[in-house]
Amino acid sequence: MTDRLTTSFGPARRRVGPAVASLLAVAGLLLGTAACNGDIPDGPSATVTLPATFPKGDVPLVDGNLIDAGERSQGGVTVFNVTVQAKPDGYDEAKKKLVAAGYTALGDGAGSPDSRSAQFSGKGYIVTVNAASAGAIPNAVFYAVSKA
Q1: Domain total for the chain?
Q2: Consecutive 10-residue runs of the chain (148 residues): their mean pLDDT?
Q3: For residue 47, what is the DSSP state?
Q4: Which domain holds residue 23?
Q5: Distance between CA atoms of 147 and 80, rounded to whole angstroms?
Q6: In terms of domains, do 19 and 85 share one?
């Protein structure tokens, strides 16, 4: 039974142990070298863009870093979802931009100090804005846009 690789004694264990240890050491060096050379990206590799059919001219977005954007069909209605990492007070900026574009607030700033939301109506759209100052994406402003 000294030939079996599963035993804890005998010559087979002595031959396999150093080989496995050497292989792991080489793999660790290769991974460490790749990380030091910058071969591993620091952030997302894909660039986020608004869907081609997003109503850019009718629905103003807060200034900031576009984190996520997409569209889906829900009950035959297209709904756009957009997430922007804005500056602090992103909700207030989003509200100002929508009101300046002719939207009416249907609810104003419901929520807590760290999270606010409201719906806006105008230009044939319903826009729901949610903003969170804390969380996974600090100062995130979330939009849900659909035809009215």
Answers
A1: 2
A2: 45 42 37 41 67 97 97 94 95 96 85 87 97 89 96
A3: P
A4: 1-40
A5: 10
A6: no
